[in-house]
Amino acid sequence: MAALAGVGIKTVSRVINDEPGVSEATRQKVLNASRQLNYQLDMAAGSLRRAGRRTLSVGLLLPSVSNPFSGEINRAIEDALGARGIAVFAASLDDDPRREQAIVTAFLGRRVDGLILTPIARSQAYVIPEHSRDLPLVFIDREPVGMEADAVVTDNAAGAASAAAHLISGGHTRLAYLGDRTDIQTARERRRGFVEEIGRHGIPTSTIPIRENLHNEESARLAALELLTAEDPPTAIFSSQNLVTFGAMRALRELGLSNRVALIGFDDFTLADMMDPGVTVIAQHPEQIGKLAAERLLARIDGDEQPPRTYVVPSELIQRGSGEIRPPA
Amino acid sequence: MAALAGVGIKTVSRVINDEPGVSEATRQKVLNASRQLNYQLDMAAGSLRRAGRRTLSVGLLLPSVSNPFSGEINRAIEDALGARGIAVFAASLDDDPRREQAIVTAFLGRRVDGLILTPIARSQAYVIPEHSRDLPLVFIDREPVGMEADAVVTDNAAGAASAAAHLISGGHTRLAYLGDRTDIQTARERRRGFVEEIGRHGIPTSTIPIRENLHNEESARLAALELLTAEDPPTAIFSSQNLVTFGAMRALRELGLSNRVALIGFDDFTLADMMDPGVTVIAQHPEQIGKLAAERLLARIDGDEQPPRTYVVPSELIQRGSGEIRPPA
DNA sequence: ATGAAAGCGCTAACAT
DNA sequence: ATGTTAGCGCTTTCAT
């Protein structure tokens, strides 16, 4: 290509990278030759020598790219990083701790400029060596364990507390909790926020019906059925996650209680307003989480050396009917 | 690192790549040094020299990574390619033709081993140079225009036809069509299949109420309201896409017609069975589309030279109630 | 304004 | 079984 244009290889490099110090005439010669050959810069070869070795790519580890919440985060990150010419490798973890480390390793082998990840393994201490060698790292949804790094999370406890407060202000005193696996930090936070808020209102917390380790719709449905058909059933239910909410909705419908027992779910979902009744939720803001995470990562890539911090994105109570059902008089 | 282990650089390469011809003793020496330095192979540097220049990465262009249908495809592709150690760059197009070409260019600069894309631009002729230089290429959801390459698509016309047949067998003769933008190939196919099937049953097709270019919930809702409040309203509606289906559902509910007018939507969605009535749909199979596309891409990467082909993934009618509503006697 | 030389981290080809 | 040399496509550094 340098040959075709009749110039030195460095001049080609100058033109392609829009560096100064090239006469307009040579510029055109090079540009022509480049078009003729359909020339395309090889980014990887470039980063091999470039100062800082930037590859303009980052790795993103999510629960699953097919999960709508992750999809929104993915999209926000893509938008924020794409504006800087950075491409995103995304991978799904499926709650498998071994995958987490394997994928991190694979991405590091590709020399990504940084990593954004939803931690699932019991500890993230394994990235300490890389992180201290200046690998930019931002955690999302959950804080890392065994190390310190930036994190962007939803206010899980506060959101759950606002659900409890809302139900209590509606007159409920018998509130039940349906929760996800207790080894997931966010699930524990949500329970804590919920239970503590109930206590704050002077309602005894030791007898709150709590069913946990519900990780899919069916187990949640069964747990809700059990709860609702037991003696002294709850007049309001809080579910900690979408699939659990769906299970609770099914149980309520089966028992004909959809309009008699209150329900608030953590996390918003499509068509929630089209249900009967509309489903009141604590909505998270995945676009904001993704955007903030991308911005923090860029700041770190650009050399920000502040001590690591956790950024909290507020959740939002959206009233749609199910959470406003009153207890029977 | 070769120095630390006290061996030649090539021996290190042999150990890392599990090549034969290294004594167990030296192997251990190298492995130890590698652990001490936290050594990590640089894939990019490797592919620079490796035969075939494989980077073990591919590019994926989707309408949007945040759209559930795309998410499922993304996931299936990730699973199929991940098994071969291939990482996926995903990008969102937002129906913007200029983005399509820009992202393809960006991915080519990263020397991806292949590309899987949902075409949106009017023509894909711009990739002909690369494709004929052996860039593996598979289109999904829509076939390319202006060039020939493998494609994996849903049987749009047949799926829409099965919806029409189902409604007609339920006794309907006045069927309406609510469709997406007519510049989208799949939308046109769905209309064609729907209309042709109606004709096949001897019902005049010239008077079918057709409303098109509905690209979001609100425009679909308004179109459906108009249709349903006009003279001689349809007794059954077919909607060509999720957002359009949602709009139609809202209109039916507003008019109190949810249980009087039949509805079949193209594309399945979460909670469709929880609606009142459950929504009958023509379900696509994004996991199969993604899996097949990934398999075809791998075959091409592995040197398959067959002439390009279009693979059709069948859709499936799922009865849930709304599509089984009978016309008024 | 332009170019030559060195070298990024690796693998291929060829010694030894 | 192990090492040496060259070179992938680029950017850096330093001449000219």
TrEMBL record, chains A, B:
Q: List, for all copies, the residue spans of the domain called HTH lacI-type.
A: 1-50
**What SUPFAM superfamilies has UniProt attached to this entry?**
lambda repressor-like DNA-binding domains, Periplasmic binding protein-like I
Cite the PROSITE patterns for this sequence.
HTH_LACI_2
Q: Which UniProt keywords apply?
A: DNA-binding, Transcription, Transcription regulation
Question: Which Pfam families does the record match to this protein?
Answer: LacI, Peripla_BP_3
Checking CDD domains in the record gives:
HTH_LacI, PBP1_LacI_sugar_binding-like
Q: Specify the superkingdom.
A: Bacteria
Q: Does the keyword Transcription apply?
A: yes
By what name is this protein known?
LacI family transcriptional regulator
> Which species is this record about?
Arthrobacter ginsengisoli
